[in-house]
Amino acid sequence: MALQWTPNWEEVIIESHGIRLRVRRDKETKLLACPICGEGDNAIYFFSVDDLIRHILSHTKRIEKHQVFVPAKPVEEEEEEYEE
Q1: Quick one: 33 exposed, middle or buried, by C-beta within 10 A (0-12, 13-18, 19+)?
Q2: CA distance 78 to 72
Q3: Is the pTM of this model over 0.70?
């Protein structure tokens, strides 16, 4: 029994819950590779489309933590600038 396999990737388009993704799928095992993580040593593979979508959404959750919001100027300050 081998602990590794030689993947034979094909590019496919999957769709679920109104989300359409272009991903790579192994022809033999039907594993789906995360298009963000890529393939190889750091790759993450999924058997289920729903699990892959949840994983991709987790990428966006990490990004949201690092967003910086710049407060807008209050309307009163903008009006004062025009009066001068």
Answers
A1: buried
A2: 10
A3: no
